[in-house]
Design goal:
It is a single chain. This protein has one domain. With 90 residues, it is mostly helical. Helix content is 78%, strand content 0%. It comes from Kineosporia succinea. InterPro entries: Transgly_assoc. It is a multi-pass membrane protein. Belongs to the UPF0410 family.
């Protein structure tokens, strides 16, 4: 169980950091927020992958396709986060 939590945090950090690099503009957020966006993006990416391909992975927890899906999901979550945050600031 502890290994799963550590893996989620590391994958969340990687996915969130890559998403912040891919999305243009300034994102003023902490490391913790980056990790949370990456973790939520992992779930979003996994859900979208399940909807598109109709399969669930039984080959293991950590796969390259899962990392790519996590990054795509994190980009989606970050764009939504930035749009919601910019509306609140106005």
């Amino acid at each position: 169980m502890l290994g799963l939590i550590i893996t989620l945090i590391v994958v969340g950090l990687i996915a969130g950091a890559v998403a912040r690099l891919l999305v243009p503009g300034r994102q003023s957020m902490s490391i913790l927020t980056t990790i949370v966006i990456g973790i939520v993006g992992s779930f979003v990416g996994g859900f979208l992958g399940y909807l598109l391909f109709g399969k669930d992975s039984f080959d293991g927890f950590l796969q390259p396709s899962g990392l790519i899906g996590s990054i795509i999901g994190a980009v989606i979550v970050l764009v939504v986060w930035m749009n919601v945050g910019s509306r609140r600031a106005i």
